[in-house]
């Protein structure tokens, strides 16, 4: 617990964490308000239309949590205090993942609540398992994404490189593979963030033809993330700080 407390102090002692948290909440909630105000048709799924904006900010926050330690060499003090580097990395990952889950839930229920207030005449009750998954599931996606970002940050070490890799991959690369002749769609179906989006959107009003269901998408995304994190843990354990 003391290691988690130390990581919490390090994480929340920098202003970038607070700014990222503010943006991660404000952007999707604000977009939800715009959608609720201007859209002709509003449902539970549409209240979460802006979750990806918050997710991108969460990726940046999680990557910064470890790359800034390498930038300012504070990671060396951490590894001196905790010789087991994997344990130190796991503590940081657990803390950031927990923060990601909380942020995701605030984003999701905040977006839903804003839409419900602005459009009281629309039925937005969370009265079935699908609608609950569409909203409450955002926290799980944020948490897993945070783990992935910490792992990428540990591998790359540099803030610019880690952030660029995460954002370019999630926003651009996964869509560009669709341009590959014949097999582009099949490859895109197995992209990690596509799988995460399937968990939050699959089975809704616009179902996709992916080879797995919503929960299968979450499991696949988690498996990919775990694999990347294990590689990062191995590299951190064996590479000089």
UniProtKB/TrEMBL annotation:
Q: Where are the transmembrane segments?
A: 18-37, 49-68, 89-114, 134-156, 163-183, 215-236
- Keywords annotated in UniProt: Membrane, Transmembrane, Transmembrane helix
- What is the protein's name according to its record? ABC transporter permease
- Organism equals Saccharopolyspora griseoalba
Organism lineage reads as: Bacteria, Bacillati, Actinomycetota, Actinomycetes, Pseudonocardiales
